[in-house]
Amino acid sequence: MPEQIGLPHPELISDEIHEVISYRPHWIVRRGNIFFFLVIAFLLFFTWLIKYTDIIRGSAKILSINPPKLVSSKVEGKILKLFVINEQLVSKGQHLGYLESTTDYNETIKLQKWIEQIITTTQNKTCNVLIEKPLPALYNLGELQTNYQLFQNEWEEARQTLKNGYYGKKRNALQKDLQYLASIKNNTYQQHNLVEQDRQLQKREFDAYDSLAKDKVIAPLELNQYKSKLIARDQILKQIDVEVINANVNRHIKEKELLDLQKTITDQRQKFLSGLLDLKSEIEKWIQQYVLIASEDGKLLFVSSLKENELIGAGQGLFYVQPNQTEFYAELTVGQNGLGKIKTGQPVMLKLESYPSNEFGYIKGNVNYISNIPSRRDSFLIQVHLPKGLQTNYNNVILFRNNLSAKAEIITDDRKLFDRLVAQLKQNWDR
What we know:
This protein is α+β, with helices and mostly antiparallel strands and 431 residues long. Helices cover 48% and strands 20% of the residues.
């Protein structure tokens, strides 16, 4: 029987060889290739998920088409009164408060309102307001008191001139004189017509007797009597003509007096309006200096905590008025490095220096304009549209301030890491 070929007998195997044969390797050795390929697949999967962006950085400033307006004090002094609170909606021209002055605010505003009423009515050629709304008696106008006293004298003179005063009565008297002269002239014309008719009768009678005298029916002496009557009628007509001329002269004199009076009234009215406007101008100057006024419709924002009787300096900013309709945008400058990659519509991240992005987030925008001409520093201007205004990705709304600077990041390419890896491998393969 042939000998079986196989493993050697156990008694012929040494202990060392038996230990090697019976040793079971670690699982990482037995399945290492599978684990290696799983790791590679896992890494490739993450390269598919992770995006690797191309970014061009630059410095930017946040601007506004209708930026918030700063309300500042014109003079140094105490805030005597505040009419508003923080974040209150205000309208353009609204008084926000006033500063300490020798002039009483309430009396000044009362006088200003009275002036506006007078200007409105006098522009309509109506003078009844001079009687219906007399000048208010004010005694605490401080630096405006002298201007007020001067205008008060012009006011009293205007009342006498423009409404039921001396000039008004004189004008009525002259108008009545003209009516009387017109009546006298009318009566004179009627008298002239009657005398003219009487003369025509006398003329006919004289012509008849003149014919008889030529025929020597009557004596010439008797004809002279009729001729004398005719001459008398002619004299009366001449006297009546003189009376008409005198009436016209008197009427002309009265009309001239009336014109002079009207000119005096017009001059006085103009003088009154000039004094009124001068006083209005002085009041507006005082208001501009001592009263804090909203320059825009919108929300009022306090620059700092303010309270009444607080001392402030000249030119100190007190409020911001943020308009209701405000459009924000950003302007950034970039160098020539990578400029060709920038195109309109590309996303931009703006990280404000005053508001850390890890706490407040960043503002999203899009490129909407690229300058073709470089600046003096060989940089290019890029304008960025902010579709959500100053709202960050953390839904925080940033308060706009002038010269608000930021660091801009323009995302020119937002491909995945896997695509970049494949593209790099393809590029190396093509070589």
